[in-house]
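Dear U.,

For the methods section draft, I wanted the exact inputs and outputs in one place so we can describe them consistently. I've listed the two proteins in the order they'll appear in the manuscript figures. Please don't edit the token lines directly; just add comments below if something needs changing.

First protein:
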Amino acid sequence: MPSDHPQPAFVLVRPQMGENIGAAARAMWNFGLDRMRLVAPRDGWPNPAADALASGAGRLLDEAQLFGDTASAVADCTYVLATTARSRDLTKPVVSPEQAMRLAAARIGQGEKVAVLFGPERAGLENADIARANAIVSVPVNPDFASLNLAQCVLLTAYEWRRQTGHVADEVNAPGSSGWASGHEVEKLAEHYQDRLAEAGFFFPETKADSMKLNLRNLWSRMPLTRADVQMLHGIMRQMVRWKQRGD
């Protein structure tokens, strides 16, 4: 059964190769989408060639809805987006994938049903398909090589859906199982290094010693140290002192 999460239906219009349908299913499921609709697949349906490329997303293929034409595939939808890389003579709003999924999320949040159309591999959607859409999704690709693989286009759109509907951290810096070092632990590490370096005569000449110690202490505060890091750095310094003592 499809998941309970409200989401758009991804409609593959007249897809040609089963492998691309399978790869599109995998791309959808990567980002939590599982409403696939197929319009008149060239090689019929079901297609065994799709299973190999689905790679764990076979459920989407099993539950995919089959339609004879685009009109019937979007008949229950109140808002339809059409992906195309080519300029068209049809007058419609043209939006980026990001804006498209922002609009989709807003409308779905209001209880509407949204569909996204993806065209066949050879030439993309026909004007007759796009005429049934409310807006066109245009990907900012290289104008000298604008063609996107079907699964690539599905993945790009699914990623934008995920960005609009789920928390996507711009950066994650996790400390691991040991956790971040406390201020006290970093202070003790700084004192350890400062004391041993002073014994080694590192802070020379004396007129610069204070600024060197300040720079060293500032270095520790700039480093995002974990408790494991602190323990390792203590160990490194202790071992260097032992090695020096053995050489004396």
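Second protein (the one for the lower panel):
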Amino acid sequence: MASKDIENALGMNYAYLSTLFRKQTGKSITAYKNELLIEQAIDIFKKSNKNITEVSNKLGFSNPYYFSRVFKRVTECPRLYT
């Protein structure tokens, strides 16, 4: 979900929502969203034989390289294996 989608769905300015979200959670909306996506990715990896490209595409990442970077950042895992 893009920032404009969130803004439109809630009828509030995204910058304001982002500030409120960070105050409540200590995280940005993007960081939280990435954490949720990586949890889903881990579940997919555990339950299937999908590769990084397939999981990346399924979760809506722009490319497998970006997915891999986000995965490493969220999990603090130095290497991504499937």
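Candidate sentences for the figure legend, describing the second protein: The chain has a mean pLDDT of 90. The CA atoms of residues 3 and 14 lie 6 Å apart.

Thanks,
Y.
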